[in-house]
Structure formats: C-alpha cells, structure tokens
C-alpha cells in the first residue's frame, strides 16, 4: 500500500488520517510529465524547498469542484487553489519559489530543473 500524505504546508491529511473523520480524501500526484502545470502547482504551494518527485501528492482538500472531470479525476490543467497559510511562514515572496527550485537542484529528485526547462 502506498503511504500517501499531502505536501501542502499545514495540511495534515494522510492516507490513514484525515482532518475530518469519515471524509473521503483523494491524493493527487504532482504532474511530473506536464512542466507548465507542475510550475503552477509549485508556485501555488509557496514552499521554499518543495518536495518533488514520484509519490509526492496534494490532497483533494486543495482543489475546487470545477477542477474535476469526474469525482476523483482532475482536469489536465487543474491547479490546487484552496489553502490556509495562516499558520505557516515560509519566508517566500511571490515568484521566489520557482527560482529557488530551479537554482537549487540538490533538493529536487529527478532533476526538476530539467523537467521544468
């Protein structure tokens, strides 16, 4: 069984534990094969050193209903947009996330800089 958890700052959803008991939560893999969509996901997450690679996921709590084709299938260009960053301080200013990702390849699995170019 894959042990999924959400990489959004401040989100504690995991495959074995969700914030609201009984709620169905789906975990969506980062769009590693779609560089432009991946860029938009990483910018939305506002993380200084985002964990990127196979198996990294964002839970359904961070998507709006119009992001889905059917119940748990995201549209190809869907980007997470529901966040509560009130309890999280990354020290990141708008636009800085992607430049940090591309410049610091050491923190990226599967050479994210190559994927995003």
Automatic annotation (TrEMBL):
<dbReference type="GO" id="GO:0003677">
    <property type="term" value="F:DNA binding"/>
</dbReference>
<keyword id="KW-0863">Zinc-finger</keyword>
<dbReference type="InterPro" id="IPR038441">
    <property type="entry name" value="THAP_Znf_sf"/>
</dbReference>
<keyword id="KW-0479">Metal-binding</keyword>
<dbReference type="InterPro" id="IPR052224">
    <property type="entry name" value="THAP_domain_protein"/>
</dbReference>
<keyword id="KW-0238">DNA-binding</keyword>
<dbReference type="Pfam" id="PF05485">
    <property type="entry name" value="THAP"/>
</dbReference>
<dbReference type="GO" id="GO:0008270">
    <property type="term" value="F:zinc ion binding"/>
</dbReference>
<feature type="domain" description="THAP-type">
    <location>
        <begin position="1"/>
        <end position="83"/>
    </location>
</feature>
<keyword id="KW-0862">Zinc</keyword>
<dbReference type="InterPro" id="IPR006612">
    <property type="entry name" value="THAP_Znf"/>
</dbReference>
<protein>
    <recommendedName>
        <fullName>THAP-type domain-containing protein</fullName>
    </recommendedName>
</protein>
